[in-house]
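Task: sequence in, structure out. Protein: DUF7598 domain-containing protein.
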Amino acid sequence: MNSPALRGAGLVVLQALRVATVITLLVAGAACWILIINVEKNKPYFIFECFTLFFVSVFCSLLAVSELAFAEFIKVYLRRMWPVLSDHHGLSWLGFGMIIIGCNILGMLNHDLKMSSALSSLVLAAGILAFIFGFLNVVCSFIWCDRKEGITSRDIRANGSLAQSQRQYPDYDTNGRSSPVRNEKYRSKIASMFWKKDKEQFVNGQPDISPPYVSHYARDIEAQSDSPIIPGLKRPDTALHPMNSRSSRSSRYSEANMSRF
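Result:
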């Protein structure tokens, strides 16, 4: 994979495979809706069969959007919600998804569906193409990748020989600092639903802390704050005593203010 020629060839091959993949997914989605219309309505559980085909068509649309993700907000959404389909991962999960879609569509041809030959051929072609191009995506994902450098097949498809590693994922969590705090608050709310003790200890999200303990000796000292010389005159606070002052002394008792000679 260190050969620039091999990576350049991978750029051409993977871009051509990308076009074929998008066309196949669109055809597979259309085939699902054809099967929904022509499903046997006289069976009691046909509605579940319709829902299954509907979800397969939605999955086809999601894979097609992941391959046509040219806008930045779509890339950011895929990195957060569907990281295996984003540009930070290879094409293997896309290929496995297409194989599942192809198997599902081909399996529906087992039913006795009343369709014209043209529609039946379209459904058959959609299933075969989904299976083939899904397998090719898996194979190409393992061929054009470099695990030591962290380079995936999507990186080579986008940049060719200039592909670089994208091991850093800054778009997964833009608020990285606030997410741990948010998760901690969420856990405390969940815990408070099961333990009443947490509800009693926390009031409006703040812990209920008891007031500081004041001993009887401290209360007696406060009560004896009157001046011993003049009854009724409150003694100044101890914090205002010159002994507790950080500033330099304002008076000099042991030094005479005169010359030594």
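The chain has a mean pLDDT of 76.
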